[in-house]
Amino acid sequence: MKITSAEFVMSNSDVAKCPAAPLPEYAFIGRSNVGKSSLINMLVDRKSLAKTSGRPGKTQLINHFKINKNWFLVDLPGYGYARVSKKDKKIFQKYITEYFEKREQLVCSFVLVDIRHEPQPIDLEFMEWLGTNGIPFAIIFTKADKLKPGAIAKYVDNYLKQLLDTIWEEAPPHFVTSSANRTGKEALLAYIDGINRDFF
Ligand code: GTP
Ligand code: MG
Predict the structure, then answer these.
(1) How many CB atoms lie within 10 A of CB 29?
(2) Domain 6-199, second-level architecture
(3) Residues within 5 Å of ion ligand 2, judged at the Cβ atom
């Protein structure tokens, strides 16, 4: 799929105020600093459409980007960010939870995990919650440029094996990406294109 346009639509913290257009949408979720905003920029070939930072906690709201005038990418705040207060964390959890529960046109959630890390309880819990709530998701391994090419398959296999050993009977769809060297772009866009075709 070729990206012909990518525009920022709005930021907010209330799912009821998200864009009303019934277009398919894809959300990016995962721990702070895992590379959600960077991946959105990489996919649409824009340097700073989504705001990124080396410090965790950059993305704070539900951010809608309209792509090719007929679908949305959604950049979300990261979870597991230790420096926000307990109160803020609660508010965050509430509106993000509501977003996932109520957003009807959410056709796929991408759960991003750093390819170098062992499965983290917070990610596993979140995937389990998505599964329980019947929200389709795929795993995106990020920052693949940080590993030697020969090591990538080993890390991915180890991660998926642990998923299969614990909660899942079948591995979810998964993608290996690097925003730094643009790995995984075509595969992800093809996946999105396939879902869009079923939607329309
Ligand atoms: P929050 O909005 O804080 O939740 O973070 P985020 O998940 O949106 O991460 P962001 O895209 O802001 O990136 C965090 C840091 O990781 C930045 O310093 C990026 O440059 C870096 N980064 C993101 N993707 C990659 C990647 O593929 N490779 C490398 N080497 N660094 C990356
Ligand atoms: Mg971000």
Answers:
(1) 24
(2) 3-Layer(aba) Sandwich (3.40)
(3) 36-37, 58-59
